[in-house]
Specification:
This protein is of the alpha/beta class and about 425 residues long. Helix content is about 35%, strand content about 15%. It has a six-stranded parallel sheet, with helices on both faces. Strands 9-10-11 form a three-stranded antiparallel sheet, with helices on one face. The longest helix has 24 residues.
Protein backbone atom coordinates (compact mmCIF):
# COMPACT_ATOMS: atom_id res chain seq x y z
CA UNK A 1 0.00 0.00 0.00
CA UNK A 2 1.32 3.41 -0.91
CA UNK A 3 1.66 6.21 1.60
CA UNK A 4 -0.99 8.93 1.47
CA UNK A 5 -0.11 12.08 -0.38
CA UNK A 6 0.87 15.05 1.76
CA UNK A 7 -1.55 17.96 2.06
CA UNK A 8 -1.23 20.52 -0.70
CA UNK A 9 0.51 23.75 0.06
CA UNK A 10 -1.68 26.85 -0.09
CA UNK A 11 -1.90 28.30 -3.57
CA UNK A 12 -0.58 31.75 -4.48
CA UNK A 13 -2.72 34.67 -5.43
CA UNK A 14 -2.47 35.52 -9.14
CA UNK A 15 0.14 38.24 -8.57
CA UNK A 16 1.39 37.31 -5.09
CA UNK A 17 4.29 35.11 -4.13
CA UNK A 18 4.11 31.33 -4.40
CA UNK A 19 3.27 29.61 -1.14
CA UNK A 20 5.79 28.31 1.30
CA UNK A 21 5.70 24.72 2.46
CA UNK A 22 2.81 23.98 4.85
CA UNK A 23 3.65 24.37 8.51
CA UNK A 24 3.44 21.37 10.82
CA UNK A 25 1.24 21.42 13.88
CA UNK A 26 3.12 22.19 17.12
CA UNK A 27 4.85 19.13 18.51
CA UNK A 28 4.71 17.15 15.27
CA UNK A 29 7.75 16.49 13.07
CA UNK A 30 7.91 18.59 9.90
CA UNK A 31 6.91 16.87 6.68
CA UNK A 32 9.85 15.41 4.75
CA UNK A 33 11.43 17.62 2.15
CA UNK A 34 10.56 16.54 -1.39
CA UNK A 35 13.40 14.65 -3.11
CA UNK A 36 14.38 17.48 -5.47
CA UNK A 37 14.16 20.28 -2.90
CA UNK A 38 17.04 22.69 -3.33
CA UNK A 39 17.37 22.04 -7.06
CA UNK A 40 17.05 25.22 -9.15
CA UNK A 41 15.77 24.81 -12.71
CA UNK A 42 15.48 27.57 -15.31
CA UNK A 43 12.81 26.68 -17.86
CA UNK A 44 13.51 28.68 -21.02
CA UNK A 45 11.61 26.30 -23.29
CA UNK A 46 8.23 26.76 -24.96
CA UNK A 47 5.31 24.53 -25.86
CA UNK A 48 5.52 20.99 -24.60
CA UNK A 49 8.55 18.69 -24.42
CA UNK A 50 10.99 20.95 -22.57
CA UNK A 51 8.41 22.66 -20.34
CA UNK A 52 6.79 19.36 -19.35
CA UNK A 53 10.19 17.97 -18.35
CA UNK A 54 10.59 21.00 -16.06
CA UNK A 55 7.08 20.39 -14.68
CA UNK A 56 8.00 16.81 -13.77
CA UNK A 57 11.02 18.11 -11.85
CA UNK A 58 8.94 20.76 -10.12
CA UNK A 59 6.38 18.18 -9.05
CA UNK A 60 9.03 16.61 -6.82
CA UNK A 61 10.28 19.79 -5.24
CA UNK A 62 12.62 21.51 -7.68
CA UNK A 63 12.42 25.32 -7.68
CA UNK A 64 11.47 25.87 -11.32
CA UNK A 65 11.61 29.40 -12.67
CA UNK A 66 9.79 29.73 -15.98
CA UNK A 67 11.49 32.41 -18.09
CA UNK A 68 9.26 33.80 -20.85
CA UNK A 69 9.66 36.58 -23.39
CA UNK A 70 8.08 39.79 -22.07
CA UNK A 71 5.93 40.30 -25.14
CA UNK A 72 5.63 36.74 -26.50
CA UNK A 73 4.58 34.34 -23.72
CA UNK A 74 4.90 30.58 -24.05
CA UNK A 75 2.36 29.70 -26.79
CA UNK A 76 1.01 26.88 -24.63
CA UNK A 77 -0.83 29.55 -22.66
CA UNK A 78 -3.08 29.96 -25.69
CA UNK A 79 -3.33 26.34 -26.82
CA UNK A 80 -6.67 24.60 -26.54
CA UNK A 81 -9.77 25.71 -24.65
CA UNK A 82 -9.71 28.60 -22.19
CA UNK A 83 -12.00 29.65 -19.37
CA UNK A 84 -12.52 33.33 -18.62
CA UNK A 85 -9.57 34.06 -20.88
CA UNK A 86 -7.25 31.75 -18.95
CA UNK A 87 -5.66 28.92 -20.93
CA UNK A 88 -6.37 25.60 -19.24
CA UNK A 89 -3.45 23.65 -20.71
CA UNK A 90 -1.07 26.12 -19.11
CA UNK A 91 -2.55 25.41 -15.68
CA UNK A 92 -1.04 21.91 -15.91
CA UNK A 93 2.13 22.70 -17.86
CA UNK A 94 2.97 25.69 -15.66
CA UNK A 95 2.22 24.13 -12.30
CA UNK A 96 4.83 24.33 -9.54
CA UNK A 97 6.72 26.99 -11.53
CA UNK A 98 7.43 30.59 -10.71
CA UNK A 99 7.11 32.82 -13.75
CA UNK A 100 9.27 35.72 -14.85
CA UNK A 101 9.91 37.60 -18.06
CA UNK A 102 13.26 38.19 -19.74
CA UNK A 103 14.27 39.11 -23.29
CA UNK A 104 17.51 37.19 -23.77
CA UNK A 105 18.36 39.08 -26.96
CA UNK A 106 18.80 42.35 -25.02
CA UNK A 107 22.07 43.08 -23.24
CA UNK A 108 20.31 43.43 -19.89
CA UNK A 109 18.41 40.21 -20.46
CA UNK A 110 21.60 38.35 -21.33
CA UNK A 111 23.39 39.69 -18.25
CA UNK A 112 20.45 38.79 -16.02
CA UNK A 113 20.28 35.25 -17.35
CA UNK A 114 23.99 34.78 -16.64
CA UNK A 115 23.34 35.88 -13.07
CA UNK A 116 20.47 33.43 -12.81
CA UNK A 117 22.59 30.66 -14.35
CA UNK A 118 25.35 31.21 -11.81
CA UNK A 119 23.03 29.92 -9.07
CA UNK A 120 21.10 27.33 -11.13
CA UNK A 121 21.51 23.60 -11.39
CA UNK A 122 19.67 23.07 -14.68
CA UNK A 123 18.67 25.09 -17.71
CA UNK A 124 16.12 23.61 -20.13
CA UNK A 125 15.85 25.31 -23.52
CA UNK A 126 14.44 24.42 -26.94
CA UNK A 127 15.66 27.16 -29.24
CA UNK A 128 16.94 26.12 -32.64
CA UNK A 129 20.63 25.17 -32.56
CA UNK A 130 22.77 28.30 -32.63
CA UNK A 131 20.20 30.64 -31.10
CA UNK A 132 21.77 30.78 -27.63
CA UNK A 133 25.17 31.12 -29.27
CA UNK A 134 23.87 34.08 -31.29
CA UNK A 135 23.10 35.80 -27.99
CA UNK A 136 26.49 34.82 -26.51
CA UNK A 137 24.71 32.47 -24.13
CA UNK A 138 26.12 29.17 -25.36
CA UNK A 139 27.77 26.49 -23.27
CA UNK A 140 31.15 28.28 -23.01
CA UNK A 141 29.52 31.38 -21.52
CA UNK A 142 27.11 29.51 -19.25
CA UNK A 143 29.64 27.01 -17.95
CA UNK A 144 32.09 29.84 -17.30
CA UNK A 145 29.73 31.34 -14.72
CA UNK A 146 28.68 27.92 -13.38
CA UNK A 147 30.80 24.85 -14.16
CA UNK A 148 28.25 22.65 -12.34
CA UNK A 149 25.38 23.65 -14.62
CA UNK A 150 23.46 21.06 -16.65
CA UNK A 151 22.37 22.69 -19.92
CA UNK A 152 19.51 20.66 -21.40
CA UNK A 153 18.83 21.31 -25.09
CA UNK A 154 15.58 19.91 -26.49
CA UNK A 155 15.15 20.26 -30.24
CA UNK A 156 13.38 18.45 -33.03
CA UNK A 157 16.48 16.95 -34.61
CA UNK A 158 19.34 17.42 -32.17
CA UNK A 159 22.30 19.80 -32.17
CA UNK A 160 24.07 18.44 -35.27
CA UNK A 161 23.40 16.54 -38.48
CA UNK A 162 21.80 17.52 -41.82
CA UNK A 163 18.38 18.27 -40.28
CA UNK A 164 19.53 20.04 -37.12
CA UNK A 165 18.61 23.46 -38.51
CA UNK A 166 15.02 22.47 -39.33
CA UNK A 167 12.05 23.42 -37.15
CA UNK A 168 10.86 20.28 -35.40
CA UNK A 169 7.62 19.28 -33.72
CA UNK A 170 6.32 16.05 -32.26
CA UNK A 171 4.15 15.43 -35.32
CA UNK A 172 7.25 15.19 -37.48
CA UNK A 173 8.83 12.75 -35.04
CA UNK A 174 5.71 10.58 -35.11
CA UNK A 175 6.00 10.44 -38.90
CA UNK A 176 9.77 10.04 -39.15
CA UNK A 177 10.13 7.40 -36.44
CA UNK A 178 7.89 4.81 -38.07
CA UNK A 179 5.10 5.25 -35.53
CA UNK A 180 2.56 6.61 -38.05
CA UNK A 181 3.50 3.94 -40.59
CA UNK A 182 2.29 1.15 -38.29
CA UNK A 183 -0.72 2.99 -36.84
CA UNK A 184 -4.15 2.71 -38.45
CA UNK A 185 -6.13 0.22 -40.48
CA UNK A 186 -4.32 -1.76 -43.22
CA UNK A 187 -6.31 -0.17 -46.06
CA UNK A 188 -6.38 3.36 -44.59
CA UNK A 189 -3.83 6.19 -44.38
CA UNK A 190 -1.19 6.30 -41.63
CA UNK A 191 -2.60 7.76 -38.42
CA UNK A 192 -1.08 10.52 -36.30
CA UNK A 193 -2.04 10.64 -32.62
CA UNK A 194 -4.54 13.39 -31.68
CA UNK A 195 -2.27 14.60 -28.87
CA UNK A 196 1.43 15.37 -28.34
CA UNK A 197 2.69 11.79 -28.08
CA UNK A 198 6.29 12.34 -29.18
CA UNK A 199 6.57 15.56 -27.16
CA UNK A 200 5.33 13.87 -24.01
CA UNK A 201 7.60 10.87 -24.44
CA UNK A 202 10.48 13.31 -24.93
CA UNK A 203 9.53 15.14 -21.73
CA UNK A 204 9.79 11.92 -19.75
CA UNK A 205 13.13 11.13 -21.37
CA UNK A 206 14.39 14.65 -20.75
CA UNK A 207 13.58 14.54 -17.03
CA UNK A 208 15.44 11.22 -16.85
CA UNK A 209 18.39 12.70 -18.76
CA UNK A 210 18.56 15.68 -16.40
CA UNK A 211 18.62 13.47 -13.32
CA UNK A 212 21.26 11.25 -14.93
CA UNK A 213 23.47 14.28 -15.66
CA UNK A 214 22.98 15.51 -12.09
CA UNK A 215 24.01 12.10 -10.75
CA UNK A 216 27.19 12.32 -12.83
CA UNK A 217 27.79 15.82 -11.48
CA UNK A 218 27.59 14.47 -7.95
CA UNK A 219 30.55 12.23 -8.76
CA UNK A 220 32.64 14.55 -10.92
CA UNK A 221 31.64 18.03 -9.74
CA UNK A 222 31.18 19.07 -13.38
CA UNK A 223 28.05 19.88 -15.33
CA UNK A 224 27.49 19.00 -18.96
CA UNK A 225 25.21 19.45 -21.97
CA UNK A 226 22.19 17.20 -22.55
CA UNK A 227 21.33 16.94 -26.27
CA UNK A 228 17.75 15.65 -26.60
CA UNK A 229 16.20 15.23 -30.06
CA UNK A 230 12.43 14.73 -30.18
CA UNK A 231 12.82 12.24 -33.04
CA UNK A 232 14.71 9.79 -30.82
CA UNK A 233 12.77 8.83 -27.63
CA UNK A 234 9.73 7.68 -29.62
CA UNK A 235 12.00 5.18 -31.38
CA UNK A 236 12.82 3.64 -28.02
CA UNK A 237 9.17 3.03 -27.14
CA UNK A 238 8.53 1.50 -30.58
CA UNK A 239 10.59 -1.46 -29.43
CA UNK A 240 12.41 -3.93 -31.68
CA UNK A 241 11.33 -2.65 -35.11
CA UNK A 242 14.83 -1.59 -36.23
CA UNK A 243 16.31 -4.86 -34.99
CA UNK A 244 13.65 -6.90 -36.73
CA UNK A 245 14.45 -5.17 -40.02
CA UNK A 246 18.21 -5.35 -39.47
CA UNK A 247 18.22 -9.09 -38.83
CA UNK A 248 15.20 -10.34 -40.78
CA UNK A 249 14.27 -7.62 -43.26
CA UNK A 250 10.87 -7.57 -41.52
CA UNK A 251 8.75 -4.43 -41.84
CA UNK A 252 5.61 -4.31 -39.73
CA UNK A 253 2.52 -3.15 -41.57
CA UNK A 254 -0.56 -1.43 -40.22
CA UNK A 255 -2.87 -3.89 -38.48
CA UNK A 256 -5.44 -1.61 -36.87
CA UNK A 257 -6.18 -2.72 -33.32
CA UNK A 258 -4.81 -6.17 -33.92
CA UNK A 259 -1.37 -7.36 -32.91
CA UNK A 260 1.04 -9.41 -34.98
CA UNK A 261 2.19 -11.08 -31.76
CA UNK A 262 -1.02 -12.42 -30.24
CA UNK A 263 -4.79 -12.70 -30.62
CA UNK A 264 -7.52 -12.05 -29.75
CA UNK A 265 -6.50 -8.44 -29.25
CA UNK A 266 -9.00 -5.82 -30.36
CA UNK A 267 -11.85 -3.54 -29.37
CA UNK A 268 -15.33 -5.03 -29.41
CA UNK A 269 -18.76 -3.41 -29.39
CA UNK A 270 -21.19 -4.43 -26.63
CA UNK A 271 -24.95 -4.82 -26.86
CA UNK A 272 -25.53 -1.41 -25.28
CA UNK A 273 -23.38 0.38 -27.85
CA UNK A 274 -20.20 0.83 -25.83
CA UNK A 275 -16.77 -0.66 -26.48
CA UNK A 276 -14.34 -2.83 -24.55
CA UNK A 277 -10.71 -3.74 -25.21
CA UNK A 278 -9.40 -7.27 -24.81
CA UNK A 279 -5.77 -8.32 -24.52
CA UNK A 280 -4.40 -11.87 -24.45
CA UNK A 281 -0.65 -11.41 -24.35
CA UNK A 282 -0.39 -14.34 -21.92
CA UNK A 283 -1.26 -17.83 -23.14
CA UNK A 284 -3.26 -18.61 -20.01
CA UNK A 285 -5.38 -15.49 -20.48
CA UNK A 286 -6.08 -16.37 -24.12
CA UNK A 287 -7.31 -19.79 -23.01
CA UNK A 288 -9.58 -18.28 -20.35
CA UNK A 289 -11.11 -15.85 -22.84
CA UNK A 290 -12.00 -18.51 -25.38
CA UNK A 291 -13.44 -20.80 -22.73
CA UNK A 292 -15.46 -17.87 -21.37
CA UNK A 293 -17.00 -17.16 -24.77
CA UNK A 294 -17.90 -20.82 -25.26
CA UNK A 295 -15.20 -21.83 -27.73
CA UNK A 296 -12.92 -24.31 -25.95
CA UNK A 297 -12.64 -26.16 -29.26
CA UNK A 298 -10.36 -23.38 -30.54
CA UNK A 299 -8.02 -23.80 -27.59
CA UNK A 300 -7.42 -27.41 -28.64
CA UNK A 301 -5.82 -26.44 -31.96
CA UNK A 302 -2.03 -26.66 -32.22
CA UNK A 303 -1.85 -23.11 -33.59
CA UNK A 304 -3.50 -21.76 -30.44
CA UNK A 305 -0.42 -22.63 -28.42
CA UNK A 306 1.59 -19.57 -29.55
CA UNK A 307 0.89 -15.88 -29.89
CA UNK A 308 2.00 -15.87 -33.52
CA UNK A 309 -0.26 -18.84 -34.25
CA UNK A 310 -3.24 -17.11 -32.71
CA UNK A 311 -2.45 -13.90 -34.60
CA UNK A 312 -2.57 -15.86 -37.86
CA UNK A 313 -6.14 -16.89 -36.99
CA UNK A 314 -7.29 -13.47 -35.76
CA UNK A 315 -10.39 -13.43 -37.96
CA UNK A 316 -11.72 -16.62 -36.40
CA UNK A 317 -10.85 -15.54 -32.85
CA UNK A 318 -12.31 -12.03 -33.30
CA UNK A 319 -15.54 -13.56 -34.59
CA UNK A 320 -15.81 -15.78 -31.53
CA UNK A 321 -15.00 -13.10 -28.97
CA UNK A 322 -16.74 -10.25 -30.76
CA UNK A 323 -19.92 -12.26 -31.30
CA UNK A 324 -20.14 -13.19 -27.62
CA UNK A 325 -19.53 -9.60 -26.46
CA UNK A 326 -22.05 -8.17 -28.95
CA UNK A 327 -24.84 -10.07 -27.20
CA UNK A 328 -24.13 -8.63 -23.73
CA UNK A 329 -24.06 -5.26 -22.02
CA UNK A 330 -20.76 -3.71 -21.06
CA UNK A 331 -21.45 -4.28 -17.36
CA UNK A 332 -22.14 -7.98 -17.97
CA UNK A 333 -19.03 -8.36 -20.15
CA UNK A 334 -16.78 -6.72 -17.56
CA UNK A 335 -18.24 -8.81 -14.74
CA UNK A 336 -17.83 -12.06 -16.68
CA UNK A 337 -14.25 -11.29 -17.68
CA UNK A 338 -13.41 -10.33 -14.12
CA UNK A 339 -14.83 -13.58 -12.77
CA UNK A 340 -12.84 -15.53 -15.39
CA UNK A 341 -9.66 -13.60 -14.54
CA UNK A 342 -9.38 -12.48 -18.16
CA UNK A 343 -7.99 -9.10 -19.24
CA UNK A 344 -10.55 -6.54 -20.35
CA UNK A 345 -11.12 -2.80 -19.99
CA UNK A 346 -13.86 -0.44 -21.06
CA UNK A 347 -12.93 2.08 -23.73
CA UNK A 348 -13.35 5.26 -21.68
CA UNK A 349 -13.62 8.88 -22.67
CA UNK A 350 -12.53 11.65 -20.30
CA UNK A 351 -15.90 11.63 -18.51
CA UNK A 352 -15.43 7.96 -17.67
CA UNK A 353 -11.82 8.52 -16.64
CA UNK A 354 -12.79 11.15 -14.08
CA UNK A 355 -15.38 8.77 -12.58
CA UNK A 356 -13.19 5.66 -12.70
CA UNK A 357 -12.96 4.17 -9.17
CA UNK A 358 -9.38 2.95 -9.62
CA UNK A 359 -8.16 6.39 -10.70
CA UNK A 360 -10.11 7.85 -7.78
CA UNK A 361 -8.46 5.46 -5.34
CA UNK A 362 -5.02 6.39 -6.64
CA UNK A 363 -5.88 10.13 -6.66
CA UNK A 364 -4.57 10.11 -10.23
CA UNK A 365 -6.78 13.07 -11.06
CA UNK A 366 -6.64 15.46 -8.15
CA UNK A 367 -8.18 18.82 -7.30
CA UNK A 368 -6.03 21.95 -7.07
CA UNK A 369 -7.32 25.24 -5.69
CA UNK A 370 -6.43 27.92 -8.22
CA UNK A 371 -6.79 31.63 -7.40
CA UNK A 372 -7.88 32.44 -10.97
CA UNK A 373 -10.32 29.60 -11.63
CA UNK A 374 -11.14 28.08 -8.26
CA UNK A 375 -10.99 24.29 -7.77
CA UNK A 376 -9.64 22.59 -10.91
CA UNK A 377 -8.98 18.93 -11.61
CA UNK A 378 -5.82 17.73 -13.31
CA UNK A 379 -3.45 14.79 -13.45
CA UNK A 380 -1.54 14.32 -10.21
CA UNK A 381 2.23 13.85 -9.96
CA UNK A 382 3.51 11.00 -12.09
CA UNK A 383 4.27 8.44 -9.38
CA UNK A 384 4.05 7.88 -5.65
CA UNK A 385 7.05 7.80 -3.32
CA UNK A 386 6.44 6.36 0.16
CA UNK A 387 8.89 8.58 2.07
CA UNK A 388 9.36 11.78 0.03
CA UNK A 389 6.28 12.23 -2.16
CA UNK A 390 5.79 14.92 -4.75
CA UNK A 391 2.88 17.36 -4.74
CA UNK A 392 1.13 20.00 -6.80
CA UNK A 393 1.78 23.16 -4.83
CA UNK A 394 0.06 25.50 -7.28
CA UNK A 395 -1.24 25.53 -10.85
CA UNK A 396 0.24 27.56 -13.71
CA UNK A 397 0.71 31.20 -12.76
CA UNK A 398 0.14 34.37 -14.78
CA UNK A 399 2.76 35.60 -17.22
CA UNK A 400 5.64 37.24 -15.35
CA UNK A 401 3.96 37.00 -11.94
CA UNK A 402 7.23 36.37 -10.07
CA UNK A 403 9.62 38.57 -12.03
CA UNK A 404 10.24 41.09 -9.25
CA UNK A 405 10.60 38.38 -6.59
CA UNK A 406 13.16 36.40 -8.61
CA UNK A 407 15.16 39.52 -9.43
CA UNK A 408 15.11 40.55 -5.77
CA UNK A 409 16.60 37.16 -4.89
CA UNK A 410 19.44 38.01 -7.30
CA UNK A 411 20.07 41.17 -5.34
CA UNK A 412 18.94 43.60 -8.04
CA UNK A 413 17.92 47.00 -6.75
CA UNK A 414 14.71 48.73 -7.70
CA UNK A 415 16.72 51.05 -9.94
CA UNK A 416 18.33 48.12 -11.76
CA UNK A 417 14.96 46.47 -12.31
CA UNK A 418 13.55 49.75 -13.61
CA UNK A 419 16.48 50.04 -16.03
CA UNK A 420 15.80 46.55 -17.37
CA UNK A 421 12.18 47.47 -17.94
CA UNK A 422 13.17 50.66 -19.72
CA UNK A 423 15.50 48.63 -21.96
CA UNK A 424 12.65 46.22 -22.77
CA UNK A 425 14.51 43.28 -21.21
CA UNK A 426 11.60 42.56 -18.82
Amino acid sequence: MTAPRPPRAPEPTPSGPPPHAPQSAPGTPPPPAPPLAGLRVLDLATLFAGPLAATLLGDFGADVVKVEHPRKPDPSRGHGPAKDGVGLWWKILGRNKRTMTLDLSRPGGRATLLRLAADADVIIENFRPGTLEKWDLGWPELSAVNPRLVLTRVTGFGQFGPSAHRPGFGTLAEALSGFAAITGEPDAPPVLPPFGLADNITALATAYAVLTALAARDRTGQGQVVDMAIIEPILTVLGPHPLWYDQLGYVQERTGNRSTNNAPRNTYRTADGTWVAVSTSAQSVAERVLRLVGRPDLVAHDWFGSGAGRAAHADELDAAVGGWIAERSRADVLAAFDKAEAAVAPVQDVRDVLADPQYQALDTLTTVDDPELGPIRMQNVLFRLSATPGAIRWAGRPHGADTDAVLAELGLTAAEVAALRTEGAL
